[in-house]
Write a structure and sequence with these properties.
Layout: E1 2-3, H1 8-13, E2 18-19, E3 22-28, H2 34-47, E4 51-56, H3 61-70, H4 75-80, E5 84-88, H5 89-93, E6 103-104, H6 115-131, E7 136-141, H7 143-150, H8 152-169, E8 173-180, H9 186-195, E9 198-207, E10 210-220, E11 228-234, H10 238-241, E12 245-249
Parallel strand pairs: 3-8, 3-9, 4-5, 4-7, 5-6, 7-8
Antiparallel strand pairs: 1-2, 9-10, 10-11, 11-12
Length: about 250
């Protein structure tokens, strides 16, 4: 069964959507809006009945909420309704207690040997009982944030173990990995691309007319896949479709 991003342009290129149990890497640079696009996918999937989990490595929780609001996701409302869970590693690192009942922090020392076991205890105790028959959509927000705290090699080891365990626990799921390419090495990006089933690469340019982004769909493990390039548009299709973001094939 395919899991649609609910963006027809992307789903068509990826063979009708994402495979259950798959991982999609969303790569971007410093001035890109890609991380908000990922949160918008999450918002649309939650409205379709999925359960969302945001693994927050990079920002204070208030910043996550504001970014999600920009993307059309009401974190507090969806969290209170049982549709969204945040595992807040950022606050855990700095000893900040959670402000909301749907936000979970990791207690005690957070190190290479403890972070994954503590994470999956949260999944077992807090996420799994609330999942039911829903699909689980996880957004890793962001993977370069994990690399900042633990170093790139350790972050990759944690990621590989995490994905293996996560897909075992939740075969009816999809994971979106957000990676700011400007914050990590080419080696790190190459490893993330290698382990991902799908790869979307956002490339921004600053012009006199604003920020222009091209999107390269460079990997999809489907027989019919052919790489495609789109122009990423912000706000232009909102009046017609209600969406903040849209895509247009380059050359059309």
């Amino acid at each position: 069964m395919r899991v649609k991003t609910l963006y027809n342009e992307l789903d068509e290129v990826m063979g009708g959507g994402l495979s259950q149990g798959s991982t999609m890497a969303i790569l971007y640079d410093t001035y890109s809006f890609a991380q908000y696009f990922a949160l918008h996918i999450l918002a649309k999937r939650i409205k379709s009945g999925d359960l969302g989990v945001v693994s927050n490595y990079s920002y204070p929780i208030g910043r996550v909420i504001r970014g999600a609001q920009f993307a059309g996701l009401d974190v507090v409302s969806e969290g209170e309704k049982g549709n969204l869970v945040i595992i807040d590693y950022f606050s855990s690192r700095y000893g900040v207690p959670p402000r909301y009942p749907f936000v979970y922090t990791l207690s005690g020392h957070i190190g290479e040997e403890t972070i994954n076991p503590k994470t999956f205890l949260i999944y077992q105790e807090k996420v799994l009982p609330n999942l039911g028959d829903r699909l689980l959509l996880r957004v890793v927000y962001t993977l370069d944030g994990l690399a900042f705290f633990f170093g790139e090699n350790t972050a990759l080891k944690l990621l590989y173990f995490d994905l293996a365990k996560f897909m075992e626990m939740f075969p009816k799921s999809v994971t979106l990995l957000l990676v700011n390419k400007d914050a990590v090495s080419k080696h790190f990006v190459a490893r993330v691309v290698d382990i991902s089933d799908y790869v979307i690469d956002f490339r921004s340019q600053i012009t006199r007319n604003g920020i222009v982004e091209d999107v390269v769909v460079s990997k999809a493990l489907t027989p019919e896949f052919s790489p495609e390039i789109f122009e990423f548009l912000i706000g232009e299709a909102k009046e017609k479709t209600g969406d903040k973001f849209s895509f247009k094939k380059v050359g059309q």
